[in-house]
Specification:
single chain, mainly alpha, 6 helices, about 0% strand, globular, RNA binding, Csn12-like, KIF-binding protein
Length: about 150
């Protein structure tokens, strides 16, 4: 059920942060910047993405967490974590593997506002790299207009 989604989000966030810290420590120790820990974390999160996306239970946006709810409610958060790692690793070509299934199922329009803003931010950045400036402007404008104003880092 989808009652595990908050734990999955915490695990994804922690895995992401620990992998970056481990890569930094590895660089300090060995002098090599191979991002191997982040690459390992990407593999774990890709598996989580696949399992949540392919959940066979019907996804009802806004439904409360329950033992019989769809895990698809957690997809967008995982996608955003993977986007952050792909950008860090400079493997932007892998972003397309996330965009197609998420947008074909309209999952990018479901979920928390924060997840939607983060998703649109990364899609906008990706469009910039692909010289699709109108699309980039549309997505980045959405992200800016809908982000939490109290977050000074935005």
């Amino acid at each position: 059920g989808n009652w595990l989604i908050p734990a999955l989000h915490t695990t994804c966030r922690t895995t992401h942060k620990i992998s970056i810290s481990a890569d930094i420590q590895s660089y300090k120790t060995t002098g090599r910047n191979d991002h191997s820990k982040t690459q390992n974390a990407v593999t774990l999160l890709q598996e989580s993405f696949s399992k949540t996306l392919n959940d066979r239970k019907e996804y009802v946006p806004g439904a409360p967490l329950s033992t019989d709810g769809s895990k698809k409610a957690g997809v967008l958060y995982i996608v955003n974590s993977l986007f952050a790692m792909y950008f860090r690793l400079n493997t932007l070509r892998l972003c397309k593997n996330l965009l197609r299934p998420v947008e074909s199922r309209n999952l990018h329009e479901q979920g928390d506002d924060g997840d939607k803003v983060t998703y649109r931010y990364y899609v906008g950045r990706l469009a910039m790299f692909e010289d699709q400036y109108e699309s980039a402007e549309r997505h980045l404008d959405y992200a800016l207009e809908h982000c939490y104003r109290g977050a000074r880092g935005n």
